[in-house]
Design brief:
8 strands; elongated; Chlamydia_OmcB; DUF11_rpt
Length: about 130
């Protein structure tokens, strides 16, 4: 997951977490939850989330919650999987822009569903998250 914010100050900081079930079945919907918390003493404005899904994981349209976050922009890139194999597959990145402003101590959460293809069941597969300030 990648989450980003336009900071209110040059020393902005956010705490980010991504949660999901510890085990899932291919083809079944899975709920991911992204949470950003402002532990600092300055407000953060225009918080945006960016989540790079693992290969073989696909966003379920209309599953974003809260509804006020809207649907993400979906960017699809071709990536080599496994690396060095010469075989390329699509990988989705989800982007929600200007989701919230966070006062010191506040948190905001976005939940969404994905489905996993049979090929997504790679042990140890990871997704990435960050919060560019």
């Amino acid at each position: 997951m990648l989450a980003g914010a336009q900071p209110a100050s040059a020393d902005a900081e956010l705490s980010l977490t991504k949660s999901s079930p510890s085990s899932v079945l291919a083809g079944e919907p899975v709920t991911f939850t992204l949470t950003a918390t402002n532990p600092g003493d300055q407000p953060e404005f225009n918080l945006s989330f960016r989540d790079e899904l693992p290969v073989g994981v696909t966003y379920v349209p209309g599953s974003s919650s809260p509804a006020g976050a809207g649907e993400p922009t979906i960017v699809t890139n071709s990536v080599e999987d496994p690396p060095g194999s010469g075989e390329f597959v699509d990988q989705q990145t989800l982007i929600w822009k200007n989701v919230a402003d966070l006062q010191p101590g506040d948190s905001t959460t976005i939940s969404f569903q994905v489905t996993l293809s049979d090929t997504a069941a790679t042990p140890g597969a990871r997704s990435t998250s960050s919060a560019p300030a």
